[in-house]
């Protein structure tokens, strides 16, 4: 709050997701692409 920066997160697990994304964006993007592929392929089956 002193820095006038803070997150309002919908669930405690989201904090870890945000941290992981910031730690390694390329890895996070790869995981999101994999999740999207699995979701799209799962919907068409």
In short:
The chain is mainly alpha-helical. The chain has helices at 12-23, 25-44. The protein is elongated.
Blueprint (SSEs and pairs):
Blueprint lengths: L11 H12 L1 H20 L1
Helix pairs in contact: 1-2
Description:
- With 45 residues, the protein is mainly α.
- It has one domain (12-44).
- The chain contains two helices and no strands.
- α1 (12-23) packs across α2.
- The radius of gyration is 15 Å and the shape is elongated.
- The mean pLDDT is 88.
Provide keyphrases for this structure:
45 residues; mainly alpha; single chain; 2 helices
Please give the number of β-strands. Answer: 0
Helix content: over 70%
In terms of per-residue confidence, which ranges show pLDDT below 50 for 5 or more consecutive residues? Answer: none
Strand content: under 5%
**Helix/strand class:** mainly alpha
The number of distinct helices, counting runs of at least 4 residues, comes to 2
Q: Give the overall average pLDDT.
A: 88
Largest sheet: none
Question: How do the SSEs run, as a string of H and E?
Answer: HH
> In whole angstroms, how far apart are the ends?
48 Å
What is the total number of structural domains?
1
Coarse morphology: elongated
- Spatial extent as radius of gyration: 15 Å
